[in-house]
TrEMBL record:
Protein name: Uncharacterized protein LOC101896584
Keywords, in A-Z order: Membrane, Transmembrane, Transmembrane helix
Spans traversing the lipid bilayer: 12-36, 48-71, 83-108, 114-142
Source species of the chain: Musca domestica
Superkingdom field: Eukaryota
Origin organism lineage: Eukaryota, Metazoa, Ecdysozoa, Arthropoda, Hexapoda
Length: 169
């Protein structure tokens, strides 16, 4: 069996992103303390804390999502993985909508050069493509576990033991 199975890639992606989110959360909290200790004007300090608290909340949400994903992968429970899968799909769709909006905003409203707007669009599409590429093993594993969990086991008449087991039991 190959060491690069869908499950291994999904675990690698989930663990690496979870570690990245924890590091991001720690750095964000450190920035809050640095900003609170520095001497700033009141309105600038309010904006600083707002700009730091939003990423902090995003980090916490991502940590919860990746923990649910990891528990779902290890326990082979597709319902725990579903939260991550659906939020990622919504994020990809919203990313495409925002990218199109930014492209139109740059091109029509700000009247930037066409080449600059195209470069922004291409870079955004590449980023979304990388996100889809990284998400695909997790989605494939989610579909496999969901299919394996939806197939009912057939039991023998006298022993009440399963006649066959799926790959994920």
């Amino acid at each position: 069996m190959c060491c690069c199975t869908v499950r291994c890639w999904s675990l690698f992606l989930a663990w690496s992103n979870l570690i990245g989110c924890v590091i991001g959360f720690i750095l964000t909290v450190a920035l809050i303390f640095v900003g609170a200790n520095s001497e700033m004007q009141d309105e600038r300090q309010g904006m600083f804390i707002l700009n730091i608290l939003i990423p902090c909340i995003v980090c916490i949400i991502n940590i919860v999502l990746y923990v649910l994903l990891l528990v779902g992968i290890y326990q082979k429970r597709h319902r725990l993985m579903a939260v991550f899968v659906y939020t990622t799909i919504v994020g990809i769709v919203l990313g495409v909508i925002v990218l199109i909006g930014v492209f139109i905003f740059l091109l029509i409203i700000l009247k930037h050069e066409f080449v600059y707007s195209i470069v922004v669009l291409v870079v955004g599409l590449i980023c979304i493509g990388i996100e889809i590429l990284a998400f695909s093993p997790i989605y494939i594993l989610y579909k496999r576990i969901r299919k394996a969990n939806s197939v009912p086991e057939q039991y023998g008449l006298s022993t009440n033991q399963p006649l066959y087991k799926t790959d994920y039991n």
